[in-house]
User: Fold this.
Amino acid sequence: MGFFGFLLLGLIAGAIAKLILPGKQGGGWLITLVLGVIGALLGGFLGTAIFGVDLGGFFELRTWLLAIGGSIIVLLIYGLIVGRRTAR
Assistant:
């Protein structure tokens, strides 16, 4: 998958993760893009480490599931960090 394809995957996966998680997450499209790309990387790493599968092509279901799953994990961690900082 090319660089721009990976960025598009990260943006869409981050947006889907924000839709799946309840509550209001801060950040605009740039934060969504960054968290989505980090989540796609994390999802690919965890998929390889745990299940023995990696990110495939752009249009493969496993690619999207791993990227969205990783984005949800990253978004939860981001919410914990930002939530603590604003609560103080």
